[in-house]
Design goal:
The structure holds 2 protein chains of 2 kinds. Chain A is mostly helical. Chain A has 21 helices and 2 strands. Chain A is globular. Chain B has 2 domains: 270 residues, no CATH class; 217 residues, no CATH class. Chain B is mostly helical. The chains are: A mainly alpha, B mainly alpha. Chains A and B meet through helix 15, helix 18, helix 19 and helix 21 of A and helix 5, helix 6 and helix 7 of B.
Chain lengths: 469, 501
């Protein structure tokens, strides 16, 4: 029994252990140099990541409130990997920061919340996990302590997430009212698509849409992404979005399976709006962080397309895409973060002529953008292709054609950045930036991820076998 | 013979280029890699003849299937027939010539040759693939190198052209994507799964309604790559802004990807729809031929002249495919080969002139024959081939298309054939005018006096391409015999079409 408590909750225990270790370090008086601390923490995170692959135990705990299975282990490993990469690329920024330990404590707390959220088998635990993953996040969005924009971002984030939580909670209460239960497995058979349940679902969907920044619930995204420190933006756009999508997959595919024809059409309209508006706004951005914010909104629209399949392939394609998206987006944010930390420049115009001075970073950023645009041989091509393929399964070709045409728009704005880097002349390009070892490691990991995840088909096949739906 | 070598050679070359340093090393590596690739192409041709002589009648030779993405039933399936071999040889010729003419690329030479090799990798992969998914994959692999080649090393309004080209080709890809997904979800293999496998798909009949819906997507998608009217606008800007080697690759290889796809994917897999839509294809092709020819007359820039004439010439490819007779399809494939060699030669000649005179304007040139006889001769040969002089490849190919088209008894189709024939007169006008003005007469400028003739690498590039043109022109039956078995399978599939559609 004790064994079970330990191994089923292993990923969570690991995080808790690291958090407490950092707390002790904080409370202890000795002054550590930032570099030493960061190297130490990154080693801890690496250990955490590696341990995640071994001796995992599947099963349920607390009478079904918490459960763990092979797919969840994979998802947690993905999140661990993402956090490790975020931590690596945050190095140039954190090196000069006074509150490194607090940053990691808050960051890992949100990760812990996400783990509980995606493992939950009960709406209560789900809600708890969600809040645990949001509130500390608002605190670290404010981590550029001397910048007004950063505080503004945190404020916007806390307000919008409180609002979305309220919507979610209202949905949860209606679910409880109509079915008399909060347990996922008990809710499903009692769903009959009555008006009240439909309303509950719509509220839940709105809450989720807020967190995933689906149009029209996306308004907070761009400002928060722009204001928050780059590492936090990367975390928000990759890790927390992935986590929300993981639980959203469970909620749609398992809990609300009886209402699949209803949610199919909701997803359809949300996706059309999200892809189109995300793309149109991304085209007009001049700040790279805002640009990536809107482009990631459009990406979510594509994810919804794959999600709509409601099948094993749909589930696999979404998780697979998120893995690729993790590598690509973090690589892009890594470069931007490094440039922003050393020179303070974040606008697309500043990146003109970047290739002359920084060929290595230029290629990383370009390949990341190609991967986001879905151009082979990068993995992004496979990710997008499989999403669209999953979406075509139901024969809704309007949606497929719409997505395919929107890929051209997205291609345009990604190429615009590539053009600035490689082609546009600039008298004063960003000077040569030396890449510290830790971000370099992150770039190498991301690069191999962006190339190999696509060409090696067993990664997809593995995810497909786990998509137990 | 292991066809995967066609991917491994460029890959190895590309990696070697990345590791090398200095223009001298890089260009030698690129040249050796491309020559090896050419030799491999020759070996493939020999092996093909051996197999056929030994009585091997199967549609595709040297097939190899490897499961890739099992749950979705995607495969890495490769194999070649005569059509693909012709295309592979064309690619190998153009790549060698393209690398030779870029011998002195000083600016970012490593990236330049790397991207050229990557582009050729995409083309080889496309031509050996027998799975629509892998074809699509390789088709798109070639898009980014084109964008960067034009945008970084191009001239004129290069950023605009690069963006236009990339977006229009991406648009083509998007249409192909829809078309291929339509095919995929209409298919059902014996095991009950969907498939992208070309040969599997050819065995089954896609329902007519599905074909009618998805054929336009697939055909126009691939058509954009081969400058189908009205989606031809990327061609002039793209070609004109590109550096010489990239123009050669674009016109010589990349536009052929589209024609090959139109034939192999759209027409072959959806024959009923191909017949039903034949009139649209022929209409668009005829417009492209005539419009291209007349538009060329108005051009004053040599590169634009060749680019617009490419639109006209690629119209013949589509016309041949649209006519759906065996001779016309043979002609279409021949025209692809011929046009590939010819425009590559033309662009090479223009590049050589431009690198010396620093102008491509016909009005500013003149009297080049006296100063650079070799380059001028190359220029004239390319021009004569373009206007279809007997003895060169252009004549053989266009003749075959016309003969094949005439076999189609429909009177409107014959009208289209006549109109297309008439365009040759226009071609003669602009070619003779441009060639006459730029190489005959008084010198365009006094400064031309000190210019030198072609260097060894330029000469070898030109001779290589001219040799190809002459072989196709003098012995067209050699090429027809090579592609005939391939087109027969396409004709058989077309013959199975229910009558009355």
């Amino acid at each position: 029994m004790l064994n079970e408590y330990f191994f089923v909750l292993k990923a969570e225990w690991m995080l808790i252990a690291i958090i407490f270790l950092l707390l002790f370090l904080k409370v202890g008086t000795s002054d550590w140099k930032n570099e030493t601390l960061l190297y130490g923490i990154n080693i801890l995170l690496l250990v955490n990541l590696l341990v995640g692959f071994f001796s995992n135990l599947e099963g349920g705990l607390f009478s079904g409130m918490f459960h763990n299975d092979a797919l969840l282990i994979l998802e947690k490993n993905m999140l661990n990997l993402g956090v490790y990469l975020v931590s690596l690329i945050a190095y140039p920024w954190l090196k000069k920061h006074e509150h490194v330990l607090e940053f990691y404590i808050l960051l890992l707390t949100t990760l812990l919340g996400m783990f509980f959220m995606i493992s939950s088998g009960n709406l209560l635990l789900f809600y708890l996990g969600l809040e645990m993953s949001t509130i500390p996040l608002a605190a670290i969005a404010n981590f550029d302590l001397d910048k007004r924009k950063s505080s503004e971002a945190a404020m916007k984030m806390i307000i919008s997430s409180a609002f979305s939580s309220a919507l979610l909670l209202f949905g949860v209460s209606l679910i409880y009212g109509t079915t008399g239960s909060l347990v996922f497995t008990e809710i499903t058979p009692l769903l009959n698509g009555s008006a009240l349940q439909l309303l509950a679902f719509i509220l839940l969907l709105a809450g989720f849409s807020f967190k995933m920044s689906v149009v029209p619930f996306h308004l907070w995204t761009a400002d928060v992404y722009e204001g928050a420190p780059v590492a936090v933006t990367a975390y928000l756009s990759v890790i927390s979005k992935s986590a929300i999508l993981f639980i959203f997959l469970q909620v749609l595919y398992v809990v609300f399976k009886p209402m699949s024809s209803e949610w199919y059409f909701m997803l359809f309209f949300l996706s059309l709006l999200t892809i189109l508006l995300g793309n149109l706004f991304a085209m007009r951005q001049s700040n790279l962080k805002r640009f990536l914010a809107f482009s990631s909104i459009a990406q979510v629209g594509f994810i919804l397309l794959g999600l709509s399949a409601g099948s094993k392939t749909g589930m696999a394609s979404v998780i697979y895409f998120l893995l690729i998206y993790l590598f690509s987006n973090l690589a892009a944010f890594g470069v931007i973060g490094l440039v922003s930390a050393t020179t303070g420049k974040e606008s697309i115009d500043d990146f003109k002529g970047f290739y002359k001075t920084n060929p290595f970073l230029s290629w990383i950023l370009a390949i990341a953008l190609f991967s986001l645009a879905g151009v082979p041989p990068t993995a992004g091509f496979f990710g997008k292709f499989f999403l669209i393929m999953a979406g075509a399964e139901k024969g809704n070709y309007v949606w497929v054609i719409f997505a395919a045409l929107n890929m051209i728009i997205s291609f345009y704005y990604y190429l615009k950045v590539v053009k600035a880097i490689f082609m546009d002349p600039n008298d004063q390009p960003i000077e040569k930036i030396s890449v510290p070892a830790l971000p370099k490691l992150a770039f190498v990991i991301c690069l191999s991820g962006m190339v190999l995840t696509g060409l090696l088909s067993w990664i997809y096949e593995y995810i497909h076998t786990l998509s137990n739906f | 013979m292991n066809l995967t070598l066609f991917l491994l050679f460029p890959l190895a070359t590309a990696i070697a280029i990345l590791l090398a340093s200095g223009l001298k090393q890089i260009r030698v590596i690129a040249l050796i890699g491309s020559l090896l690739q050419l030799a491999l192409g020759g070996k493939l041709l020999m092996a093909y003849y051996e197999q056929r002589a030994a009585g091997n009648q199967s549609q595709m030779l040297f097939e190899y299937v490897q499961k890739w993405y099992g749950p979705l039933n995607l495969q890495y399936h490769i194999g070649v027939d005569g059509i693909s071999i012709a295309m592979i040889l064309l690619t190998a010729f153009v790549v060698v010539a393209g690398i030779l003419v870029s011998w002195e690329t000083e600016h970012l030479s490593k990236e330049f040759f790397f991207l050229l090799v990557l582009l050729s990798l995409g083309a080889y992969g496309f031509f050996i693939s027998l799975d629509v998914f892998t074809m699509f994959f390789f088709l798109e692999v070639a898009v980014i190198p084109k964008f960067l080649l034009i945008g970084i090393w191009g001239s004129g309004k290069k950023e605009y052209s690069a963006m236009k080209l990339a977006l229009m080709l991406m648009g083509g890809s998007a249409l192909i994507l829809v078309g291929m997904l339509g095919i995929y979800f209409s298919s059902k293999t014996a095991a009950g799964a969907h498939s992208f496998d070309l040969l599997e798909l050819a065995k089954m009949n896609i329902p007519l309604a599905r074909q009618m819906l998805f054929f336009p997507f697939a055909f126009i998608g691939f058509g954009i790559f081969t400058a189908i009217f009205p989606f031809h606008t990327w061609v002039p800007d793209g070609h004109a802004s590109a550096p010489t080697a990239a123009s050669m690759f674009l016109a010589g290889i990349s536009m052929k990807l589209g024609g090959y796809g139109c034939l192999r994917v759209a027409t072959y897999l959806m024959p009923d729809a191909a017949q039903a839509y034949a009139w649209v294809i022929i209409l668009l092709a005829t417009i492209a031929i005539i419009y291209g020819a007349f538009a060329t007359m108005m051009q004053t820039d040599l590169k634009y002249i060749n680019a617009y004439s490419s639109i006209s010439h690629c119209g013949f490819v589509l016309l041949g495919i649209g006519m759906l007779t065996q001779t016309s399809i043979n002609g279409a494939v021949m025209q692809m080969v011929s046009h590939g060699l010819m425009t590559a030669l033309f662009f090479a000649a223009i590049g050589m002139v431009y690198s010396r005179t620093h102008t491509r304007m016909v009005a500013q040139l003149g009297g080049l024959l006296k100063i650079m006889p070799f380059i001028s001769t190359v220029f004239v040969i390319a021009g004569l081939c373009s206007l279809g002089l007997p003895g060169f490849s252009g004549f053989a190919a266009e003749m075959t298309v016309f003969m094949g088209s005439w076999q189609n008894p429909d009177k409107w189709y014959r009208l289209a054939t006549i109109l297309a024939c008439a365009s040759i007169v226009v071609t003669a006008v602009y070619i003779l005018r441009a060639a006459g003005k730029s190489i005959m007469g008084p010198l365009g400028s006094e400064s031309y006096q000190n210019l030198t003739d072609a260097k060894w690498y330029e000469k070898s590039a030109a001779i290589l391409l001219i040799a190809g043109i002459l072989v196709v022109g003098m012995a067209p039956f050699w090429l027809i015999n090579l592609i005939q078995p391939g087109t027969e399978f396409i004709m058989n599939k077309l013959a199975m079409v229910a009558p009355g559609i």
